[in-house]
């Protein structure tokens, strides 16, 4: 569940481990640039959701933003009253398990 914080509590540092649909995984995997650390600085509590055997590749942050369509993700949320900005800092994908690990920053403009 998403909960919005008051503006003075921004920026928000986002750490996510997500299972994707195969088509999204393919798009990110095709944009990847090579092997990556499977735990790119994610919060330690999230590490339990990442299998040790998974192999990840790095996705350039700007390409990840484009594929995930973050430009519209924030703008199309009816719960947001102020303009928001979301930026991917790190993204890694495991094509075998459809797993995306994302580290990002969110703030209002």
3D architecture notes:
With 109 residues, this protein is of the alpha+beta class. The protein is 22% helix and 32% strand. A five-stranded antiparallel sheet has the order 1-5-4-3-2. Strand 4 (84-94) and strand 5 (99-108) form a beta hairpin. Helix 1 runs antiparallel to helix 2. The longest helix is centred in the first third of the chain and has 10 residues, at 22-31. The chain starts with 11 loop residues before the first strand and ends with a strand. The mean pLDDT is 82.
Brief account:
The chain is 22% helix and 32% strand. With 109 residues, it is an alpha+beta fold.
Order of helices and strands: EHEEHHEE
Which strand order spans the largest sheet, edge to edge or round the barrel? 1-5-4-3-2
Please tell me what the overall shape is: globular
Radius of gyration: 14 Å
Q: Number of DSSP helices?
A: 3
Q: Can you count the beta strands?
A: 5
The proportion of strand residues reads 25-35%
């Amino acid at each position: 569940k998403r909960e919005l914080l008051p503006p003075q509590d921004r920026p928000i540092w986002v750490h996510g481990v997500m299972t994707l649909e195969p088509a999204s995984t393919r798009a990110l995997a095709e944009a990847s640039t090579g092997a990556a650390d499977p735990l790119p600085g994610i919060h330690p509590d999230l590490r339990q959701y990442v299998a040790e055997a998974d192999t990840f590749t790095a996705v350039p942050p700007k390409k990840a933003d484009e594929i995930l369509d973050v430009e519209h993700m924030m703008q199309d949320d009816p719960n947001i009253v102020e303009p928001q900005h979301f930026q991917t800092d790190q993204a890694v994908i495991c094509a075998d398990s459809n797993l995306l690990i994302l580290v990002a920053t969110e703030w209002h403009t």
